[in-house]
Amino acid sequence: MLHTINLQIDDSFYPHFKAILDSFVKDNKLKIINNKETSSEDIFVNSIEEVRHRVYLSEQEPSLSQDQYNKDMDDFFKKEFGAER
């Protein structure tokens, strides 16, 4: 059986932890699948204008009426769970 975990590691402990992991990798005890560190450069923020434009476009899309939404949800619960909502 294989197990996968995601960890958040304190910067001060990371070098020690990485050394331990590297020794396990060397002994073929584990495999590092994804070694992506998150930094502020990985964060992308849209401009206010872009957000407003996306909101405007989403508001233009047709939406379900409350009655149609309730019917769809009733059908979903009946089909998926065999239960009345």
- What structural class is derived from the secondary structure elements? mainly alpha
Alpha plus pi helix count = 3
Rg estimate, integer Å: 24 Å
Inertia-based shape: flat
- SSE run: HHH
On the 0 to 100 scale, the average pLDDT is 83
Largest sheet, in brief, is: none
Measure the end-to-end span.
39 Å
Show unreliable segments. none
Number of strands: 0
Q: Hey, roughly how much beta strand do the residues contain?
A: under 5%
Residue share in helix? 40-55%
Kindly describe this structure.
The chain is mostly helical. Helix content is 49%, strand content 0%. The chain contains three helices and no strands. The chain has helices spanning 14-26, 48-60, 66-81. The relative contact order is 0.05. The chain is flat. It starts with 13 loop residues before the first helix and ends with a helix.
Q: What topology emerges from the helices and strands here?
A:
Layout: H1 14-26, H2 48-60, H3 66-81
The gist of it:
With 85 residues, the protein is mainly α. The protein has helices at 14-26, 48-60, 66-81.
From the structure above, extract its key features.
49% helix; flat; 85 residues
